[in-house]
Amino acid sequence: MEWSTHQVTNQVPDLVGYNLFDADVALNDAVRREGAAAFEQNLRDYGSRLGGVEVAELALRANQDRPKLETFDRLGHRIDQVRFDPAWHQLMGMAFEQGMHVGVVTGSEGFQAGWPAARAALYLLHGQIEAGTLCPLTMTAAAAPALRDEPWFHDLAPHLYSRRYDPRDMPVPEKAGVTIGMGMTEKQGGSDLRANATQAFPLEQGAERGAAFRLVGHKWFFSSPTSDAHLVLAHCGGALSCFFVPRWTPDGTRNAVRIQRLKNKMGNASNASAEVEFQDAFGILVGDPGRGIPILAEMATRTRLDCVLGSTALLRQALVQALHHARTRQAFGRKLADHGLMRQVLADLALESEAATVLAMRLAGALEKRGSSAEERVWVRILTPAAKFWICKRAIQAVAECMEVWGGNGYIEDGPMPRLYRETPVNSIWEGSGNVMCLDVLRALNHDADAGRAFADTLVRDASVDRPLRARAERLVKRLRTPGANPQPWARHISREIVLLSQAVLLRKHAPAPVADAFMQTRIHSEADGVFGSGMPVGAAETLLARSWPV
């Protein structure tokens, strides 16, 4: 007789077989609002593919089978290769087909108006299923604008803009498509890039743009180490300059960029990050000598926006997983989602997700317009670091709350929540941690005093749609304009207020009234205590839950 002690019931099946784009009302609205309606069918098709069983299995494999470093081949030749699970390459291929490795480009490269917002939406969708592959995509997208003015860029452009992902390790001219990484931080400096010690020495007379150099030094974090090239900071003539360091030199030999080891990261497991040394590595000077930090600062505007999108993606996926669980799991005689207190928590999480989505997509749309609008340019400059600080921080807390919705099952590695939870902090840390972002907000406000004042005045004007909102905006402006005050101790407060006020204004303009009212009640009218589900208006929960995942 076969033993049977119990029946397996009331367990929640894996969430597959849904369309990530169709299920996200806030993202649909934002895509149309930011001028990317022409891409809707493409987004819908990609959302359907990402929600399938096959892609979920690819993502699981890519994260379980971590990248492995092979320093030498069997004959003893130095190769510095990183072996990925084939699933990684399939996921990268999917992203390349969508053009996610290309940021803001002109029409001549085949991308029509609205592409920045469309790319942001693709990025947000892809990051919900597999976040590690976003790293090489964002760096490649940020590199292209930085290199566009180089005299040799026309040779690189066809490979850089190609929709064909090519994982082969060979010189760029022989490849169908390429990726570009970055190498900035060193052991002794971290975010303090001016403490970098790597040196660059000219290989020929003169040290002008396009000149060849040899680099000696190291990088403590070298993301996506097998990219076809990296943009690297190094000292040249006493100042930090930017260098294009290819994986292969022009004479067809492997460049002397030696991978010391791969980082044993807490999350972001599918993506390789390394420590490297430059042993007379070949590099080409990008831009003018001494302009390394401004070049990489411009790139950071794009990569930091992608950090905001990445955190928004993880927050969205955690929310959907929590909703799926709560709508399926029975507890105390009814579904979890039917219990009043649980509905308050889920509704508050849905509100956080929608507010993040609205702001992230607004930033993506503004990125396209900033070239022709001073107001948009200042808005992007200030809101990008502020949003990276606040949204990336809030996502960590929100994903933890979504894990708790699952109860004990959420803490088990077999389910989806641990990977989401471990992945979330990276966006808050990489591309500048929280304090760095808040200090950058102050720098942006003060760099051009007139622009900073105009931004503050605009914030108060936009906040006038609601009296308490305007009062809070005026308090912020008063703090910013207090004569002789040192704003640095208040930098986190200032950054948070800028984001919350901007989110409130955007939701008031574009979301249903119950959504905007709930945000005002929980984030503006009173100082939030930081606990999700505390203070949520009861009537707003129905609207938020129906809107958050209408499947």
Explained architecture:
- This protein is an alpha+beta fold.
- It has 18 helices and eleven strands.
- The chain has helices spanning 25-33, 40-50, 53-64, 86-98, 115-129, 134-147, 153-160, 292-328, 340-369, 374-405, 417-423, 425-429, 434-447, 449-463, 467-480, 491-510, 513-524, 538-548, and strands at 68-72, 78-83, 180-183, 199-202, 212-223, 229-236, 239-246, 257-262, 273-286, 330-331, 334-335.
- Strands 3, 4, 5, 6, 7, 8 and 9 form a seven-stranded mixed beta sheet that branches. Strands 1-2 form a two-stranded antiparallel ribbon.
- Strand 10 and strand 11 (334-335) form a beta hairpin.
- Helix 6 packs antiparallel against helix 8 (292-328).
- The longest helix is centred in the middle third of the chain and has 37 residues, at 292-328.
- It starts with 24 loop residues before the first helix and ends with a helix.
- The model has no long low-confidence stretch (mean pLDDT 93).
